[in-house]
Design goal:
The structure holds two protein chains of two kinds. By secondary structure, chain A is an alpha/beta fold. Helices cover 45% and strands 14% of the residues of chain A. Chain A folds into two domains: 233 residues, D-Maltodextrin-Binding Protein, domain 2, CATH 3.40.190; 207 residues, 3-Layer(aba) Sandwich (D-Maltodextrin-Binding Protein, domain 2). In chain A, the strands form four sheets. A five-stranded mixed β-sheet of chain A has the order 2-1-3-13-6. In chain A, strands 8-9-10-7-11 form a five-stranded mixed β-sheet. The N terminus of chain A is likely disordered. By secondary structure, chain B is an all-alpha fold. Chain B is globular, with a radius of gyration of 25 Å. Chain B starts with 7 loop residues before the first helix and ends in a 7-residue tail after the last helix. The model of chain B has no long low-confidence stretch (mean pLDDT 89). The chains are: A alpha/beta, B mainly alpha. At the A-B interface, helix 5, helix 6, strand 9, helix 20 and helix 21 of A face helix 3, helix 5 and helix 11 of B.
Chain lengths: 456, 320
């Protein structure tokens, strides 16, 4: 089994060829009335009679492609003068294709882009701003949750529309068999992290000095970053420094968060960070191998787990996770959405189709159900019938209003994976003290931010 | 009998036409797909170049400004990229210095042993040892990744059967063997397994090129097997050795796939971050193509210098 999987986007690389998809599962579930694209509400047609050809790119995840293809068909049926040439690429080639074609200025008119990349492209001038007449900022703020939308905003201007609220927070995977064998209540209703850890300790197994079951595995590339931001925010602090550009990772709240993460590994021993981490026994696979009782990962893993581990017999669910303090506060990535090339000759049509996929509630819901993703559109997420189509989203939908976009980190991946993941994992493994870890993170993250700012 | 020789001029003209018509397409192909990208790669090292920013003509200028040798200076600075570059150089150098002798120590004696067995067995052995070379590097890395898995990996299962404690082979940043990080050693073993067949076949070919008469003469003179290996085989294999050393050094400086698949982003704690992995990350993850091209240029210089030194040291003035 593949162990080196660090993040959801890395996971996409490896699952691109996986068969089936949540799209098909959802479509088969007999709820077509609510999940079908809005045929009855065709988008405003571009200039009548004018033949328009639109190029659209996305990555090659099966469920994403299926959902997009159906929306393309519906749109072109309603707008017969528009032809959409939809191309998709293996995830690993997708980013390089976008970047190299942007350099040659021959990228597609419309691209599916991960929201947390948008600001870096927008500031480089390689994305088109959405015209105010098509979507004003205030209207967008009414329609979409702040966390996904703000990823598409740069210097007060909107550079795309989100389909997805990318979420790692609010829920965890839980193995029912392990809970029952340990005599624990299932589904769990933890009121605090302490309660979760107490349960996890009862399910952790060590044989001959080797951890064979991790009670609570949170040591992942994405998980450590999200837990760090959430821990700082819920302890009442802010991870951005006063200048709103650099990071403050040495505040008492930051240290308390790293201390808490470390204690779970070193004192409570619910995870062995040497054997369970982003590079080994990654939670997205080890949970489905019966090696993890509680796994910290977003709801996107549920359709992937069902699809990729059909032989896993233990009953399991994605259940609500607790939060620290009195109010849940967390930072989230902006998820997948639609952006338009500034070189497009048919930008109006491209934006029209982008709106068709993201703003129209029925189409947006169809896309979310098909891809098994959390909706960015408020009206879709707040519709209680959504759970008929995506029954695992309950814990996630509850927390959506409490999230905010993680912010412009200048170099999101570097800070997430080269700083937080590396340094906190080292701390958990006992290589540094908590204070040293925070200082290292603070120095390295801010040095990279400075380097990026110098490159502007 | 007289041999009619064609007129010099017409023969040369037809030869020229033939040469031009056959070589020009290949030359154009090489120019567009090799030379131009190489020159482009050199050019962008002098720019703060990223495809995510809009530049001027050919992407240069504008938001991708000319910065002289700043990218080169950055490699020696205390910036995050400078630090990671130096870590990558150190790791790659460590890998190269361990891998080259290890490869030679394993493949040369093995080649001599295989050459000594009968013809049918020789073919069988040669095929078996060459198989990993024709196997996908990604597949090899994934399989070895499973072998090294700390929980259900074959290696730890065997250790536990002997009452020993298993190890997190690829993720342990704390354990070192003679100062070498454990994950680096694990990748080294995998790379040796997957790559040794290539040198083995070359050594076997080299051994077959040594005239038997020298060995026979040595036997007559009373030389034992070791003496024949040390004083006949090794010196007469010098051309082959030079080729093998240079090629192995070249390939090990450029090692990428096996690290990318087995230890991800150079983990744990950047202990397996090698130069090409760093180039990849800077270019496609951090989206700084100019900086990445500069690191690639540094790698090119390192490889060129080490290769020239090797060729100089291993130069010989005789043939047999």
């Amino acid at each position: 089994m593949i162990n080196k999987i660090l993040s959801r986007r890395d996971f996409l690389r490896l699952s691109a060829l996986a068969a089936g998809g949540a799209a098909l599962a959802a479509c088969k579930s007999g709820t077509t009335a609510t999940t079908a694209p809005a045929q009855e509400q065709p988008a405003e047609a571009p200039a009548a009679g004018e033949k328009i050809t639109l190029r659209m790119w996305s990555h090659q995840n099966v469920s994403f492609v299926t959902a997009n293809e159906q929306l393309v068909k519906k749109y072109t049926d309603a707008n017969p003068n528009v032809t959409i040439t939809y191309e998709n690429f293996p995830y690993s080639d997708f980013i390089t294709t976008i970047q190299t074609s942007m350099a040659a200025k021959n990228e597609a008119d419309l691209m599916e882009m991960f929201g947390s990349w948008v600001q870096s492209y927008a500031k480089g001038g390689t994305l088109a701003e959405i015209p105010e007449v098509l979507m004003s900022m205030s209207k967008a703020q009414d329609l979409f949750y702040a966390a996904p939308l703000d990823g598409y905003v740069w210097e007060g201007k909107l550079y795309g529309l989100p389909n997805e609220y990318n979420l790692e927070v609010g829920g965890v995977l839980a193995n029912k068999r392990m809970f029952e064998e340990a005599g624990l209540k299932y589904p769990p209703e933890w009121k605090s992290w302490d309660e979760l850890v107490a349960d996890a300790k009862k399910m952790t197994k060590v044989e001959d000095g080797n951890m064979t079951v991790s009670g609570f595995d949170y040591v992942t590339g994405d998980g450590l970053g999200f837990l760090f931001w959430e821990g700082v925010l819920e302890r009442g602090a802010e991870y951005f420094a006063e200048d709103k550009v650099h990071l403050n990772m040495i505040s008492p709240e930051a240290e308390a968060t790293v201390q808490w993460l470390t204690d779970m590994a070193q004192k409570d021993k619910v995870v062995d960070p040497l054997t369970f981490n982003g590079d080994s026994n990654w939670v997205g696979t080890s949970f489905f191998q019966g090696l993890v009782a509680i796994g910290y990962i977003g709801p996107w893993i549920v359709p992937e787990g069902r699809r990729n581990f059909p032989d896993f017999k233990d009953p399991w669910d994605h259940v609500s996770s607790p939060f620290y303090g009195s109010e849940r506060k967390f930072a989230a990535d902006a998820g997948w959405g639609k952006v338009v090339s500034p070189n497009s000759k048919v930008a109006d049509t491209a934006w029209d189709f982008a709106k068709y996929c993201t703003e129209d509630a029925a189409n947006a819901r169809f896309w979310n159900v098909g891809t098994g993703t959390v909706p960015a559109l408020k009206s879709v997420a707040e519709d209680p019938t959504l759970l008929n189509d995506i029954n695992w989203l309950g814990p996630s939908l509850k927390v959506l209003p409490y999230g905010r976009f993680v912010g412009d980190l200048q170099d999101r991946d570097y800070i997430w994976y080269n700083v937080i993941q590396v340094r906190v994992t080292e701390c958990l493994q006992g290589l540094h003290t908590v204070k040293e870890t925070c200082q290292l993170m603070n120095d390295e993250a801010n040095a990279q931010i400075d380097a990026k700012l110098a490159n502007k | 009998m007289t041999v009619e020789t064609p007129k010099r001029g017409s023969l040369f003209r037809s030869q020229h036409i033939f040469v031009a018509s056959t070589l020009t397409p290949i030359m154009l192909y090489m120019m567009f797909f090799t030379l131009v990208p190489m020159l482009w790669g050199v050019a962008i090292t002098f720019f703060r170049y990223s495809p995510t920013r809009v530049g001027g003509f050919l992407g240069f200028g504008g938001a991708n400004p000319f910065i002289g040798v700043d990218n080169y200076a950055d490699l020696f600075s205390n910036s995050p990229n400078g630090q990671l570059f130096r870590i990558s150089v150190k790791n790659t150098l460590m890998f190269v210095l361990m891998y080259l002798p290890l490869n030679l120590i394993v493949t040369l004696p093995l080649a001599v042993l295989i050459e000594a067995v009968n013809k049918r067995l020789k073919v069988v052995f040669r095929t078996i040892y060459f198989l990993p070379i024709v196997t996908s590097a990604v597949a090899v890395s994934l399989v070895w990744g499973v072998i090294y898995n700390p929980t259900f990996g074959l290696l730890n299962m065997v250790l536990r059967d002997f009452g020993l404690k298993g190890l997190p082979w690829l993720t342990d940043a704390t354990t070192r063997v003679f100062g070498i990080p454990l994950p680096m050693l694990c990748v080294l073993v995998t790379y040796l397994w997957s790559d040794m067949g290539y040198n083995l076949v070359i050594f076997i070919a080299g051994l077959q090129g040594i005239p038997e008469v020298y060995h026979e003469a040595a036997i007559v003179d009373g030389a034992n097997a070791w003496q024949r290996f040390r004083y006949i085989t090794v010196p007469l294999l010098r051309s082959t050795l030079t080729f093998v050393i240079v090629m192995t050094m070249l390939s090990s400086w450029q090692v990428f796939v096996i690290f990318f698949v087995m230890t991800g982003r150079g983990g744990p704690s950047n202990l397996t971050r090698v130069l090409v992995l760093h180039v990849y990350e800077v270019a496609f993850r951090f989206q700084e193509m100019g900086l990445a091209a500069t690191v690639a240029m540094a790698l090119f210089l390192i490889i060129m210098v080490t290769t020239l030194i090797q060729l100089r040291l291993l130069r010989k003035d005789w043939e047999y």
